[in-house]
Design goal:
Layout: E1 4-11, E2 14-20, E3 26-33, H1 38-52, E4 60-67, H2 92-108
Parallel strand pairs: 1-4
Antiparallel strand pairs: 1-2, 2-3
Helix pairs in contact: 1-2
């Protein structure tokens, strides 16, 4: 069975899904503008991407998430700073929906 990586990236209100093969080559990409409905669309978009590439969730062995929120930090060593600006950056809810989606999908695969 072929194995792939799925990445969710949110920059501002632009959401991108990437599908990579084991060597890191991009197989598929889907980008759209989040209109505060990411929780309704993200799993549907992932499902469509997998179907388009004749894959099942079991083919995905690695899920990754990243965003440009000043409060998001992959190392989880966040220092709160009152001067951080989130203007034109990934919003709190989009960050949470994206990160939780990646974690749940990783758990289920």
């Amino acid at each position: 069975m072929k194995k792939y990586k799925l990445k969710i990236l949110i920059i501002g209100n632009l959401v991108s899904l990437f599908l990579f093969d084991r060597k890191g080559n991009e197989i598929s990409k889907n980008t759209w503008t989040d209109k505060r409905d990411l929780s309704e669309k993200i799993l549907v978009k992932i499902d469509l991407m997998l179907a388009k590439n004749n894959l099942a969730i079991s083919n995905i062995v690695d899920f990754d998430f990243d965003c440009d929120s000043p409060y998001f930090n992959k190392s989880k060593k966040i220092e709160l700073n009152e001067n951080l600006s989130s203007e034109n950056k990934c919003g709190f809810m989009a960050w949470q929906v994206g990160e939780i989606s990646a974690k749940i999908l990783s758990f289920c695969s």
